[in-house]
Structure formats: structure tokens, C-alpha cells
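It is worth pausing here to work through a concrete case rather than discussing structure prediction in the abstract. The textbook approach is simple: state the sequence, then state the predicted structure, then interpret. We follow exactly that order.
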Amino acid sequence: MKKYYPGAGKIKRWLLRLMAASLLLVCLVLLFYVLTKGPKNQYAKRDKLVSIRQQNGRFNFYKNGKPFIVKGGAGFTHIKELVNAGGNTIICWDTSRLENTFKEAAKNGVAVIIGIDIPGGDNTEFYSQDSNTNKLYNHYKQIVSRYKDEPALLAWCLGNELDMPLTFTTVPFYKSYNRLLETIHQADPDHPVSTSTINVAKRFIFNIRWRIPALDFICINTYNRIKSIETDLSLIKWFWNGPYLVGEWSPNGGWEASLTTWQAPIENTSTKKAQQYAEFYTKYIPRNDPRFLGSLVFFWGNRQEYTHTWYSIFNEDDTPTEALEVLNDCWKDTVTKHQSPRLQYMLVDKSGGDSNLIFEAGSTHQAAVYLEKPGAADTLVYQWQILKEDWQHWGLTWDNFKKPAVQMGLMTDSLQSEINFKAPAGKGPYRIFVTVKNPAGFCATANIPFYVVQ
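Step two, the predicted structure:
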């Protein structure tokens, strides 16, 4: 029989309350440490080529003593076009491209943010080996030494969307990160350093504030979630109220799109995306927030990610889409008459991209693209392609993805607005793409996914 001791329940409750109080005290001490730790007056320095200052309650970059609001994109090409559209900054994450990027930036008066890509804190195996971290450290120390005196340099971004682990113990990741950060600050005191997060990642930003207090600002990469960015930022003001740059923005990331039954994301036409760029910039980019340093659109160039058109403001042959004209209006605060072809929609067998099209291998089908102004069709050039899906790379970023090979011998009349095509012989997921070009030098794009069975 279990013995009963008078007062045991009271002792147990007392111990539980003591433990809860102790935990609360630890949390309060930690919070006080987080909120008070960090370089003092880090926004009050005036002796840098580029600094971040807070004046009259508002943060700004100051470049050569003058306020500088970032308007630009992520990429490393089309820098002249960036300037012509009213942009002033490019962030380059491919350090092998920096030489030419700085050359073009200097020629066109564009600022450059250098992205330094490193493994995140969840890669414990990498950071547990000194040989890995020393190799990483020495490589980027050379990059910093090489480019720190470039007149076009605006800032550094140390890490892209890194996992920032919450832990009370010493973590090799934070040790390595702070070692790199200190090296950049010491070697180049004239330019601020940031890191980027996915959306307003509360846990990661708290850990940044606690474990990496010497960072000068934060880049927030956000897509459809930009609609709630101001609300999200207001919720964490109590522990972080510093300056930020929207380091990437674009309507609808591939992971945010509607899906087919085989999980292929459905892409909007370039015309629809142009409308979304305008909407996102005018309604959701937090330009009136006193902490806002500017924004960088994704992707300034052509990029294979989900598809070769999903994020690309330029076609693979360097022809711009209507997104370029939209950004020109946004950055210059103007309204211009756009010259790009404008699409209503694309159909395959009279069905849209959300119709879960499943074809038998070798079967025959019809595809058509419809313009907003059909009368201009005789001046347009059409290009149709069928590609296998880049299946293995869906949802991944920052790898050098390559456009899949075009499936040959499947089309007739491939230069018309309506075509016939055969489904490929191999089973699996595919897309049919159309690019529409006009004499003004612009293009429009659309595609529809389909699945082949045998």
C-alpha cells in the first residue's frame, strides 16, 4: 500500500511554483541580456563611407555623407537597365561574378551589396570540423580584402536565410559566424554587415539579437508574406526595433502557388506577375516605416528556379518582360504606357493550368495563347517549347540550376499563337511554354504543366 504523508501535496505544489519562478527569472535575465547586449551607439557613427544613421526617428543608409534609399534587385546582370529603370543597387550572391559586377556597377553608378553564402546553424557536422570552418574563414577573408575598397560597395550580407538555433550552450556555428563577422568589421569598418531571414522569422531574429548583436541591420526576404510584414514587425518591436532592408521580394514564391495533383506549382503569366509586382510595391512594401532602408526585387536577370520564367524579369535571351516597365514606374513614381505584349491566358485543349492535365504518351493536343489586344498579333513572334520539369530542384534555392533540355520533334506550327503538339514518349511531369515577343523589344511568357502516363 502506498504510504501517505501529510503535507506532501503542499510541498509538491511549492516545489513546482519555485521551479516556475526560477524559470521565469532565468527568462527575464536572458531577455534583459538580449535587449541590452550589443555595440553602443552603433547608429551614431559619422566617420564611415557607408553608415546607417537614425535621425529624427528614421533610419537611412548614408553613402558618402548623403542619405541613400535602396531600390534594386538580386542578380549580377542588366545593370545598365537597372539604372535606366530608376534602380540604384544590386545584391550579388555569386562571388565568382563580383569582378564583372563591380566593373559594370562602377560604369553605371550602382551600389553593390556582396552576399556571402555560408552553411546555416542546422549544419552541425560542417561546423564541428575546424578544417571546414578554417577553409570558409580564409576564403571569405580574401573576398573581403579584395573588395572592401571598391567605391561601389554598399554593404555585406553574411549568410542567406540561415537557421539560427536557439540554445543556451556554446554552439560552433555562432562561434564561426561571429569570427567571420568580426573579421569583416575589422578589415572593413567603412561598410555595414547584415544577414537575411525568411520573412519576419521571430525565433531567428531573437537569436540574432542575442547571439550576433554586432550585426548592423537585417535583410528580410519575403514574397506573399510581405502583405503582413508591418504587422509581423510590430509584434517583435519589444525585443528588436532596428533597421531592415527587404532583401528579396517578388509576388508568389513557387512554394506559395496553387499545385496540381502531382504537386507541380502553377505559374502566372508574365502579365499577371507584372500586375502583382505593381500591387506588392505600392500596397505592401513598407516604404513609410522609419526603419525601412529600401528593397531588392527578385530576380533581376534570368534564373532557373521552378521554371526559367518564374522569377525572371528578363527572358533567357535578355529580352525584358513587363515587370521591368512596372518597376520603372514604381522606382520613379511615374505612370507610363507599357510596350510589352499583354496576355489574357493560355490554354491546352481549352483547359487552363489548374486543370490537372494528364496525357497518354504520344497523344496529340492543341495549345493556344490569347492576347489582351488581338489586333496586334500580326506583329508578334511566338516561340513554343516543351520541357521536362526541374522536379528534383523544386523548393530549393541558391544552387546553379540549369534549364532542362527542350523536348524536340513534338510540335508543328511552333511560330503561331495556336499550335498542335504531341505528348512526350517518356512518362513524368512536363510543361509547355510560350514566349511572345514584339518589335518594341519586350516579351511575355506563360506555361501550363501536364503529366504523361504510359
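Step three, interpretation. Residues 8-36 form the longest helix (29 residues). Residues 135 and 299 are 30 Å apart (CA to CA).
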